[in-house]
Amino acid sequence: MSAFIEVQGAEVTFQTRKGPFQALRDIDLKIEKGEFVTLIGHSGCGKSTLLNLIAGLLAPTGGVLICDNREIKGPGPERGVVFQNHSLLPWLTCFDNVYLAVERVFSATEGKPALKARTAAALELVGMSHATHKRPHEISGGMKQRVGIARALAMEPKVLLMDEPFGALDALTRAKLQDELLKIVARTKSTVVMVTHDVDEAVLLSDRIVMMTNGPSATIGEIHDVRLAHPRDRVALAEDPVYVQARKAVIDFLYTRHAHVEKVAA
Ligand SMILES: Nc1ncnc2c1ncn2[C@@H]1O[C@H](COP(=O)(O)OP(=O)(O)OP(=O)(O)O)[C@@H](O)[C@H]1O
């Protein structure tokens, strides 16, 4: 049986003013339905590029990507995307930001009351019902990020693609949203692919951690299986030998075997 998402020999070469730049090469990855996979690697290695390929926002210059037995040829409602900097429309309320996405996916088959109910349920899921009528500038960064997640979830995507969704948040808000995300994913059984820089975030959330080598011509260096049962409790996990071992494996990969050497101008 084929995997839910399959990346087969993907390559990305950008045409730049200085000539071709190969960002990714030989990317082979299979993701099963319901899996939570994180992509980790040093800055500029190509994590977002790989996520954008799966999102269909970027076409590979070589290889093939498949989602649910169909070749990925562009963005699709079965793949919801959440970016680091929430991309809410500033002139719309939280409700209308989510409603717009819901309308796009379901208006052909459902009437207004059903669309409104979906929108309200998505805001409730992320604990944002209280901000229904507020505009983005009236709520905090963490709240905006929740609304962005609600908007993606409301479209009932089979796959949730997240590019450092908590990167811009303070540590406490981040921890809270990570815990909420775990609960939501347990309920919705979504397949998640998430880019992160944070080793603890990767170990806490993932079933598998995809570790990428440094660019240019980055590829997948290793994949670590996180053999920890769900639900996960961050406090109990801190001393769990499986957690400690997973953390060590990622740190060893990133900082010993694939340390990032900054190029300093002479
Ligand atoms: N449109 C583009 N044109 C040319 N080069 C690009 C383009 N997009 C990305 N790159 C280059 O491709 C490489 C990978 O970029 P990407 O943004 O995927 O890395 P990343 O791992 O997500 O980085 P970060 O962790 O800093 O966000 C980088 O060297 C980047 O400069």
Automatic annotation (TrEMBL):
- Where does the source fall among the domains of life? Bacteria
Membrane topology annotation: Peripheral membrane protein
> Where in the cell does this protein reside?
Cell membrane
Q: Which PANTHER family match?
A: NITRATE ABC TRANSPORTER ATP-BINDING PROTEIN, TAURINE IMPORT ATP-BINDING PROTEIN-RELATED
- The reply to whether Nucleotide-binding figures as a keyword in the UniProt entry is yes
Sequence ranges assigned to domain ABC transporter in this UniProt record: 7-239
Q: Name one GO molecular function term.
A: ATP binding
Q: Which UniProt keywords apply?
A: ATP-binding, Cell membrane, Membrane, Nucleotide-binding, Transport
Q: What species is given as this protein's source?
A: Ideonella margarita
Q: Which Pfam families match?
A: ABC_tran
List the CDD domains: ABC_NrtD_SsuB_transporters
Mind telling me what this protein is named? ABC transporter ATP-binding protein
Q: Does the keyword ATP-binding apply?
A: yes
Query: What SMART domains does this protein map onto?
Result: AAA
The UniProt entry's sequence similarity note says: Belongs to the ABC transporter superfamily.
| Main location, first listed in the record | membrane
